[in-house]
Design goal:
By secondary structure, the protein is α+β, with helices and mostly antiparallel strands. It is built from 3 helices and 10 strands. It has an 8-stranded antiparallel beta barrel with strand order 2-3-4-5-6-8-9-10. Helix 1 packs antiparallel against helix 2.
Length: 259
């Protein structure tokens, strides 16, 4: 999934992001014990050490499995709680992830965020004019960051371009961009409806405040377009914790942040 998925938006898109406007509703019920499991997970990640964001801790894996088996917010890919900023806390060290992704995630001195937001494509505020973005942000400092945007698709905001990925992503048998599940292995879990967010990386940039530098990957080149498609399945969602599994076999644990 590339730094987290690790792609900006088409030139026709306004650079302003929006959160969906949902009417206030009562909080969704939380299954007994899930808050305690979340607390244990956060404590285990902290105890694991700040230098081990990319790790395969047995304790963390067990807590993740317990939360995934517990009741959480239904249809998480389209639930109001999924939108906003999420900080990456920990991820598994999957051999199928791209070398760039593993290096970026393992550099723990930089904060990594994933924003799930709506962008205004044509300047008006009609819901029909908005598109869904999954934005990866690596913060190097107060005024410098890498921002990579992926055009995203859910049942609430479908994107016709996002057909099923066909290739695994290997180039001449080598893992350069990561190795994706495809075909039957990539089918959605029918028992978890509206849990998948599909995406295709579109554009990125390094922003150093006074100037920007384009991200050096040709996401829109037709030769690469299939290879930069992917998805995340949200296997657990609450108002503070999200667990996702990506198309390259990586598990991500994220915590909700204020934007």
């Amino acid at each position: 999934a590339a730094a987290l998925l690790c792609p900006a938006i088409r030139p026709t898109l306004a650079f302003q992001s929006f959160l969906p406007n949902f009417s206030l509703s009562p909080p969704k019920p939380t299954a007994p014990g899930t808050i305690d499991l979340e607390d244990k997970l956060l404590a285990a990640i902290e105890a694991n050490g700040a230098g081990k964001r990319l790790d395969n801790s047995d304790e963390i894996s067990s807590l993740v499995s317990q939360l995934e088996a517990a009741r959480s917010i239904p249809r998480p890919a389209v639930a109001p709680e999924v939108y906003g900023r999420w900080r990456l806390l920990q991820t598994t060290n999957a051999d199928t992830a791209s070398p760039i992704q593993r290096k970026a995630v393992d550099t723990t001195k930089f904060d990594i965020f994933q924003d799930i937001v709506l962008a205004d494509e044509d300047g008006d505020d009609d819901d029909d004019a908005k598109i869904l973005l999954v934005r990866q942000i690596v913060k190097f400092g107060e005024t410098s960051e890498l921002c990579v945007d992926a055009l995203a698709s859910t049942s609430a905001y479908p994107l016709p371009e996002l057909t099923a990925r066909e290739g695994t992503g290997k180039i001449l048998g080598l893992n350069i961009l990561g190795v994706s599940l495809v075909g039957e292995e990539a089918e959605e879990d029918a028992e978890r409806p509206d849990s998948r967010v599909k995406f295709v990386f579109d554009e990125g940039k390094f922003d150093f405040g006074s100037f920007t530098v384009p991200y050096p990957v040709p996401f829109r080149n037709p030769l690469f377009r299939d290879a930069v498609k992917g998805w995340i399945d949200i296997t657990y969602l609450s108002d503070r914790i999200r667990i996702s599994r990506g198309n390259k076999g990586t598990t991500f644990i994220l915590k909700k942040e204020e934007m």
